[in-house]
Amino acid sequence: MSAQQSQGIQTLLDAEKAAAKIVQEARQYRVQKLKDARTEASKEIEEYKKAKEAEFKKFEASHAGTTSEAQAAVDKETEVKLEAITHSYDSHKDEVVQKLLDRVTQVKPELHRNLKRAQS
Questions:
Q1: What digits encode the pLDDT tens for the residues 101-110?
Q2: What is the pTM of this model?
Q3: How many CA atoms lie within 13 A of 86 on its CB side?
């Protein structure tokens, strides 16, 4: 019986070693799957990032032209307004100078309104 018991114990020990080996392989398999998943996720993230950067650059390029067109329109409008102001200045400057000279040189001596009340 002792040979049979020792053979049963040996069988159990062999079974335990085989189970430990299977558990170890399962753990290694799980670790490898996690590494593979991380690698694949990193690749997907990188691809997504590249796609979004390309989309942003395309958007930026399409709107950069709009910005320069808007700047050109503002510059043209400013030029037109400056020309209108310059034209207005040139056409009215002699008249304004003449009005100023007339006001300065045509003096009507009058008593101040407070002085007029004091004399009444």
A1: 988 888 888 8
A2: 0.43
A3: 6
